[in-house]
Design brief:
- By secondary structure, the protein is mostly beta strands.
- The strands form 2 sheets. Strands 1, 4, 5, 6, 8 and 9 form a 6-stranded antiparallel β-sheet that branches.
- Strand 8 and strand 9 form a beta hairpin.
- It is globular and about 45 Å long.
- The N and C termini lie far apart (41 Å).
């Protein structure tokens, strides 16, 4: 009987943690032109620096490079940014080929993030497709931080 109770307790604990967890989602402002995919968000617990990256695939031969800019994250009532206004670099995006955009070098990481923060409520990434349209914003919601 005690084994049954233990199994039952584990099942209920697992269900509760699943109900409390929030999945990371994102909003793509131009799904007909580019597709975003896998991401990472890792923090250095010694420095409080957080690096990010995400996959992007061009769906059009007219989108062969994308300029990425400021990244801003919100979490724990605070705002974190890479501190650079404007573009930090361009990424070549051959049609149909998934590439990874990295925010993991100087002026690209988020700094001063407390290691107690487990996730960002929202992360906004500015980008320009050089198609004559205004700057767009890729928005992640509930992005977990993996601290190492």
């Amino acid at each position: 009987m005690s084994l049954f109770g233990l199994v039952l307790a584990v099942v209920f604990c697992s269900c509760e943690s699943d109900l409390d967890s929030k999945e990371c989602t994102y909003t793509n402002p131009c799904p007909d032109l580019v597709e975003f995919g896998t991401y990472y968000c890792s923090g250095n617990s010694a420095t409080g620096e957080v690096s990010m990256g995400f996959g992007v695939t061009s769906l059009s031969s007219s989108i062969s490079q994308i300029y990425f800019g400021t990244i801003t994250a919100y979490g724990g009532g605070e705002t974190y940014t890479n501190g650079v206004i404007g573009y930090i670099g361009k990424q070549s995006t051959p049609e149909g080929v998934k590439v990874t955009v990295h925010y993991n070098e100087q002026f690209k990481t988020l700094t001063g993030v407390p290691t107690s923060l487990e996730r960002f409520d929202q992360v906004t990434v500015e980008f320009d497709l050089l198609d004559g349209q205004p700057v767009r914003h890729l928005i992640f919601e509930n992005m977990p931080i993996t601290w190492n």
